[in-house]
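User: Hey, my collaborator sent me this sequence without any context and asked if I could get a structure. I don't really work with proteins. Can you help?
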Amino acid sequence: MVTFEGLPGAVAVSHLRVYDWPTEDGLRGGTPHLHLTCSEGYVVVGGAGSVQTLTASGFRQTPLAAGSLVWFTPGTIHRLVNDDALRIVVLMQNSGLPEAGDAVLTLPPRYLTDADTYCAAVALPADAVEPEQERAARTRRDLAVEGFLALRRATEAGDPEPLAAFHRAAAVLVQHRTDDWRARWQQGAAAASRATGEQLDSLAQGHSGHLADARVYAEQPSAYGKFGMCGRLDVYSG
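Assistant: No problem. I've predicted the 3D structure and written it out in structure-token form, which is a compact way to encode the shape of the chain:
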């Protein structure tokens, strides 16, 4: 009998302190982006703010306060706005794939022409001191806000083509990574689903053997304060 030992449903969890850096439109917050294969959820644990979202259906702003639960499906461009010390527990589908590659930032079109150009614009210097990492994170955030505001203006003006063009460019940028993503899904969410199916089959036959294999897991964050897309992240390895 197989038991899936990851977090329930192969989600991943991180703790996020949303950036309070100001942007060109006077707001403070994170880097607008979308995920191509993953849903994502927010459980707000402190502070206040909002999440701005943009889809083919239009622009929306959802208030966030302690206790709020918000989630969205692949293709939703999302931008966190920090009004007052916004802190969030982030739930990520597919074993944390959103922070492990399944994301395309809303950079202006000139940065979306090919993978090398895009990667050079979004990369953070891994071995640099913290001030250099912060400058790089702010620079890519500001570029993504520039692109997001242009997409929002076009969508609100009734022109769907810029958003559709961004979707097409995003799909091309990640195309070479889908084999790795598929392996992550097979070892995570798909394996969790198979394990549940086998347990149901066993229970349907009156068998309880898998209950004897029960285990308890616990861990502390494996890293604190990493520069993420939306803020400083405490992350877990499980």
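In plain terms: The longest helix spans residues 130-156. You can pass these tokens on to your collaborator as they are.
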